Amino acid sequence: MTAAVLALGVGAVTASGCVWYVPALTDLRAGADRPVSRRLTAAACVTGWATAAIAVLLLLLGVPVRPLTGLAAVGLGACIALRVRAAVRRRREEREDAACWRALVPSAPSVPGVRPQAVFARWTGVGLIAAATTGALLLTWGKGHGVGTPLAVAAPAALAACAVLAAVLRTAPALARRNGPARRP
Fold first, then answer.
1. For the chain, what is the mean pLDDT?
2. In sequence order, which residues have a C-beta less than 8 Å from that of residue 22 and are 6 or more positions away?
3. Using CA atoms, how far apart are residues 26 and 45, in angstroms rounded to an integer?
C-alpha cells in the first residue's frame, strides 16, 4: 500500500472523527465553566485526533516509517496519560461532591463501587489494544519468521474474542448483584 492511500484512509477517518473532537474543542474553549476532569478528557481526545492529522500530513510529505511510528507512539502516550489523569481527577471530584452532599443531606446515598460498564470497558479495551498490537506486529515482522497472513489475522481476532468473553464474564457477577436474583415464573 502506498503512503498516499494510507494518508487518504487516515485522513478520511480523522475527518469523520469530528463528532468527537469538535465537542472536545468546545469543552476546552469553555474553560472554567467545565470541570477539570472534563477538560482533561477533552484534551486527551484532541491530542489523539491531532496526532492522526499530523500523521496524515507526514504521510503525504513522504516521511519514513520510523518517525511516523515515533509520532504515533508519542501521541498515543500523551493521549493515554491525559485520559488517565482525567479519570483520577473525575474520581476525586465525585468523592468531593459526595462529601458535600453528605454534609447537606445526612441520608444522601454514598458513591457506588465500580460500575459494571467500567469493568466491561476496561477488559474490552485492554484486550482490543493487545489484539491490535499483536496484529500489527505479526503483519509487520511475522512474514520474516514464517507467519502467514491467515494466522496474522486469526490470532488478533481470537484475542479480541477472548477479551470480549473475559469482559462479559467479569461483568456478569456485578450485574447479577445489582439486579438481584433471577425470578422464575
1. 85
2. none
3. 12
> What is the length of the chain?
185
Helices (H) and strands (E) in the chain, counts: 6, 0
Nearest Cα residue to 128 out of 162, 171, 170: 162
Residue 181: partners with Cβ closer than 8 Å, 6 or more residues away: none
CA–CA separation, 79 and 21 (whole Å): 13
Cα–Cα distances in angstroms (integers) from residue 15 to residues 4, 21, 50, 62, 92, in the given order: 16, 10, 11, 20, 34
- Please state whether the predicted TM-score (pTM) of the whole model is above 0.85: no
Give the confidence band of 175 by pLDDT, cuts at 50, 70, 90.
low
For residues 151 and 35, what is the distance between their CA atoms, to the nearest angstrom?
A: 46
